[in-house]
Design goal:
The structure holds two protein chains of two kinds. By secondary structure, chain A is mainly beta. Chain A has strands at 4-7, 10-14, 19-25, 32-38, 44-50, 56-59, 62-67, 72-77, 86-96, 99-104, 108-113. Chain B has strands spanning 4-7, 10-13, 19-25, 30-38, 45-51, 57-58, 67-73, 76-81, 90-98, 105-107, 111-115. The chains are: A mainly beta, B mainly beta.
């Protein structure tokens, strides 16, 4: 069974702080890793997709890394802002039954205080 | 680009009735669409994968006769919850994958279903 774990479940930081969100997975069959943002009662916004041949991806203040050997990925947010407050989900990509699927963690709820 | 819409955004229905949720890719063609369910403070769970013009593939434990999925065109998939019960109350999210593109899925805004 594929499992994706995110730690911590919730995080509260003051504005301007740099922070790291962690994601770990137990299944070596996971070959890509995707990070999403979800605002309350809303759908998902894709932030970064790291393919198996890559070790990291960057977009603005966000940097995501992937270490398949250890089954870990991190999302680094620099100079956090109150607008970054949301739940961040990581999802591993696997192939099952001939189709590609996403396996999600439960997310980390981030609160950035002004 | 790559916008996915869902309709309705929220719906309340009585127990025993059926509810249809639409998922549309607005600016691209999607050969594959996915339906997820999310309970409060839980992760998204894949319910089924639908390919245009063929029957949906359901995940283990998901009743295909209860959750009817139709993917009749490259831009529209529907999920019908039949004979809804209060335990079906959840947040339903669809996603779509571009035709011939990379793996990446694009997600809709979700539909909040409440069964009374």
């Amino acid at each position: 069974k594929q499992e994706v774990t995110q730690i911590p479940a919730a995080l509260s930081v003051p504005e301007g702080e740099n922070l790291v969100l962690n994601c770990s997975f137990t299944d070596s069959a996971i070959y890509n890793l995707q990070w999403f943002r979800q605002d309350p009662g809303k759908g998902l916004t894709s932030l970064l997709l790291i393919q198996s041949s890559q070790r990291e991806q960057t977009s603005g203040r966000l940097n995501a890394s992937l270490d398949k050997s250890s089954g870990r990925s991190t999302l680094y947010i620099a100079a956090s802002q109150p607008g970054d407050s949301a739940t961040y989900l990581c999802a591993g990509v696997i192939t099952q039954g001939g189709s590609e699927k996403l396996v999600f963690g439960k997310g980390t709820k981030l609160t950035v205080n002004p | 680009g790559a916008v996915v819409s869902q309709h309705p955004s929220w719906v309340i229905c009585k127990s025993g009735t059926s509810v249809k949720i639409e998922c549309r890719s607005l600016d691209f063609q999607a050969t594959t669409m996915f339906w997820y369910r999310q309970f409060p403070k839980q992760s998204l769970m894949l319910m089924a994968t639908s390919n245009e013009g063929s029957k949906a593939t359901y995940e283990q434990g998901v009743e295909k006769d209860k959750f009817l999925i139709n993917h009749a065109s490259l831009t529209l998939s529907t999920l019908t919850v039949t004979s809804a019960h209060p335990e079906d109350s959840s947040f339903y999210i669809c996603s779509a994958r571009t035709l011939g593109g990379t793996y990446e899925q694009y997600f809709g805004p979700g539909t909040r279903l409440t069964v009374t």
